[in-house]
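Example record

The entry below shows one chain as it appears in the dataset: sequence first, then structure tokens.
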Amino acid sequence: FANIRTPSTQRGQFISDNSGKIRFFVGYRKKDIVADVYQYDRDEPAIRRWKLFDSRKIGKDEDISVLGFSHDNEKVYLDVTQPEGPDAVYVHEFSSGESTLLFKDDNVDPGHVLLSPITGGVIAIGFLDGKPRIQFTDPDDGFAIDTERLQKQLPGMEVFVTSHTSNGKLAVVYATSDKTPGDFWLYNRDS
């Protein structure tokens, strides 16, 4: 096993990408409310060190939390606290080191994250502003297309895939709304 120098915090959690590789460490010091986010330095694997994720690249020195990774693990989606108003969703590309604003709602923070059941990649972010809605991060993903199709077939409902077969062909879908406590449906992707 490689010896990894740990970040200078007293407690926290490691965050792995969809392939299981550790990419981030979110740590808190004794009296901190805001977390420090460390990124594993993949550019220098021989050194095996952590570097503080520079939130100034996003344009703010704010609190950051990791929402998830793209299907190919080349991007990470971040919830970034803003100086005023709700949090924003940024996408950070590992290859370029660039972070770009993706979504910012006028009234609410980002809510739940929808993941591809096969790759584990983020396909959408939910917002709960009156009527729940989702913003797709990867609208061309097959499961994003299915989610959009299910929302059209079940108008006014918030749709969640709760489980699926290993090949992703069959899924159990939970649909809920302000008028329905929830119904379960079996969804066949082929039909």
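Notes for this example: The CA atoms of residues 92 and 98 lie 6 Å apart. The first helix runs from residue 142 to 153.
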